[in-house]
Write a structure and sequence with these properties.
Number of helices: 1
Distance between the termini: 25 Å
Largest sheet: 4 strands, antiparallel
Helix content: under 10%
Structural class: mainly beta
Strand content: over 45%
Radius of gyration: 17 Å
Strand order of the largest sheet: 1-2-3-4
Length: 78
C-alpha cells in the first residue's frame, strides 16, 4: 500500500491538495469486505480545491481485475 500527498494552502486559505492511494489486492481488506467482490489492485485519487469554507472534493477510484465468486456477477465483470 502506498499513499502520496501534495499541494498547498494559500495565505488566503485557498486549498489545492491532491492525494493518491494505491492498494494491493482485496485480500488485504478481506475481513472488512463481503466475499462477493474482489480486485487485483485499486488506485484512488482525491483532489481538494477551493476556499476552506466551501472546498470541492473530487474522488476517482480505479479498480483493476475485479472478480467475484458469484457466477452472474463474475460474467458481468469479465
Amino acid at each position: 500500500m502506498s499513499l502520496t500527498a501534495q499541494g498547498r494552502v494559500s495565505p488566503t486559505g485557498t486549498l489545492d491538495l491532491r492525494a493518491t492511494a494505491t492498494l494491493p489486492d482485496s485480500t488485504t481488506l478481506a475481513p472488512l469486505l463481503p466475499e462477493t467482490i474482489g480486485w487485483a489492485g485499486l488506485r484512488a485519487t482525491a483532489q481538494l480545491t477551493g476556499p476552506q469554507a466551501t472546498p470541492r472534493l473530487a474522488l476517482e477510484v480505479t479498480p483493476e481485475g475485479l472478480s467475484s465468486p458469484i457466477a452472474p456477477l463474475a460474467a458481468l465483470l469479465g
